[in-house]
């Protein structure tokens, strides 16, 4: 699906966006008042031209004091009739945010319907950076498409294909280690988690850029998670095609970085352990003890806590070249959803400057994140009796924190470490975010990256 603005042609119809209480444009005439238009959030008023056609439209943004509650209100403009529309923005509405809303609102997942978006198109609003916004939207569309695709068509093989296609598009190099070669290359936990699947586990390694600070992004690529031998109940398994949302977000972020030019002056590396957590005679078992790439042993007290196992080997590989910034992105814990819901992923970082920069950027670009602590008094919870680490501490408390502490053990050696526990799914449709797969954290990282990378 294309994430581009329409050309500014002479026949483009004006679309006036209005705050509640703002005066109507002179060209609107008396029709909006007669039709009862009040500029409520998302309210649309089509303006007739007197001869059976349209001379423009009005879109309500709601009250200024409450508009912040709803991100990307302007995305509702995609319900306008088919045609090209030229947005006219009011004072106080950021042009880049408005532009992104208009593009995100056009997203449709149509792979299995044989159709494409054929609705309203928009000229880039005055003052917005069209190239920058189009690159962000293209990265987000890639993330959404990957997450929305069911596991029957998005297993480790297809995720590798998507990574190869992106690498070719942006001029990056890619190497993939697959199957038994994972054991030879010392990625034992990636192999253990994925060996029960018909599609062999693999580690995808993408590199872009040759000079500058090294930024390594590790994305969890569990293409489907049955829970393993600790099998999930049906209600919990239904959305597990999205368990590769960390990998999808990492690839979408890489596309954004390359498309916006933010990758210039950086060495970027993206690592994706791509597996299915399946059930078969050779599946890894509860209370197995696995030896990680780092040499730490891990007691498996729940085969459904597999994401941190595959991430651990990939994080260890990442630290071996001491990146300036190491980021992990993962649909990791239900505990994060209980604490913060689906819209607000927690992030973990020990570096106050990095945490502040990311939190500020998240607020600025409306890509919400919330800092949570690496709470060291909980370290004993991840230390079982017979191994170095426990992948699923008993008790059920602080699950997102203990998972982050587990991952931090394997991130030692990076200049700065940042972990995001994302959800990757929009459960209820909202402006610019239809129900389904969604990127989380990528736009905030993109905006903050100059400070994050030092």
Structure description:
- The protein has helices at 31-35, 95-104, 130-148, 156-170, 181-184, 188-194, 234-237, 245-260, 307-319, 334-340, 352-364, 399-408, 442-452, and strands at 13-18, 44-48, 54-60, 83-88, 120-122, 173-178, 202-208, 214-219, 221-225, 267-277, 289-291, 297-299, 325-330, 346-349, 370-372, 389-390, 417-421, 425-426, 436-437.
- It starts with 12 loop residues before the first strand and ends with a helix.
- Helix 2 (95-104) links the parallel strand 4 and strand 5.
- It is elongated.
- Helix 2 (95-104) packs parallel to helix 3.
- It is built from 13 helices and 19 strands.
- It is an alpha/beta fold and 454 residues long.
The name CATH uses for the topology of the largest domain is Aminopeptidase
The largest sheet is: 9 strands, mixed
The CATH level-2 architecture of the largest domain is identified as 3-Layer(aba) Sandwich
- The N- to C-terminal Cα distance equals 35 Å
Supply database-style keywords.
20% strand, 454 residues, elongated, nine-stranded mixed sheet, 2 domains, alpha/beta, manganese, metalloaminopeptidase activity, single chain
Give a brief rundown of this model.
The chain is 30% helix and 20% strand. With 454 residues, the protein is an alpha/beta fold. The protein folds into two domains: 13-113, Leucine Aminopeptidase, subunit E, domain 1 (3-Layer(aba) Sandwich), CATH 3.40.220.10; 150-452, 3-Layer(aba) Sandwich (Aminopeptidase), CATH 3.40.630.10.
């Amino acid at each position: 699906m294309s994430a581009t603005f329409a050309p500014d042609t002479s026949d483009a119809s004006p679309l006036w966006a209005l705050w509640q209480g703002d005066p109507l444009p002179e060209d609107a005439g008396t029709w909006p008042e007669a039709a009862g238009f009040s500029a409520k959030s998302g309210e649309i008023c089509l303006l007739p031209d007197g001869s059976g056609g349209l001379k423009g439209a009005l879109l309500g943004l709601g009250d200024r004091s409450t508009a912040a509650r709803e991100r990307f209100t302007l995305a509702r403009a995609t319900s306008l009739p088919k045609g090209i529309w030229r947005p006219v923005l009011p004072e106080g509405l950021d042009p880049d945010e408005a532009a992104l809303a208009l593009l995100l609102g056009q997203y449709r997942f149509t792979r299995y319907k044989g159709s494409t978006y054929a609705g309203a198109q928009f000229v880039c609003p005055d003052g917005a950076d069209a190239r920058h916004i189009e690159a962000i939207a293209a990265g987000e569309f890639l993330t959404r498409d990957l997450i929305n695709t069911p596991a029957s068509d998005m297993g480790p093989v297809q995720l590798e294909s998507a990574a190869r296609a992106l690498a070719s598009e942006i001029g990056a190099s890619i190497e993939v280690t697959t199957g038994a070669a994972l054991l030879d290359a010392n990625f034992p936990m990636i192999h253990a988690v994925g060996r029960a699947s018909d599609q062999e586990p693999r580690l995808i390694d993408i590199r872009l850029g040759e000079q500058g600070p090294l930024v390594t992004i590790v994305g969890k690529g569990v293409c489907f998670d049955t829970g393993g031998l600790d099998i999930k109940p049906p209600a919990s398994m239904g959305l597990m095609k999205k368990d590769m949302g960390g990998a999808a977000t990492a690839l979408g972020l890489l596309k954004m970085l390359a498309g916006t030019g933010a990758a210039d002056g950086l060495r970027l590396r993206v690592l994706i352990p791509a597996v299915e957590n399946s059930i078969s005679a050779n599946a890894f078992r509860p209370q197995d003890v696995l030896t990680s790439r780092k040499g730490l042993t891990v007691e498996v007290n729940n085969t459904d806590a597999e994401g941190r196992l595959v991430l651990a080997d990939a994080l260890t590989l990442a630290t071996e070249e001491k990146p300036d910034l190491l980021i992990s992105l993962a649909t990791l814990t239900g505990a994060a959803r209980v604490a913060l819901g689906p819209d607000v992923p927690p992030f973990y970082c020990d570096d106050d400057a990095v945490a502040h920069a990311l939190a500020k950027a998240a607020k600025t670009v409306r890509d919400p994140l919330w800092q949570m602590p690496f709470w060291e008094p909980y370290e004993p919870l991840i230390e079982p009796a017979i191994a170095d680490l426990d992948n699923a501490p008993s008790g059920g408390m602080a699950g997102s924190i203990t998972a982050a502490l587990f991952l931090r053990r394997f991130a030692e050696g990076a200049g700065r470490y940042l972990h995001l526990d994302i959800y990757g799914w929009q459960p209820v449709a909202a402006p610019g975010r239809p129900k389904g797969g969604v990127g989380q954290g990528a736009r905030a990282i993109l905006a903050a990256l100059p400070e994050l990378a030092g």
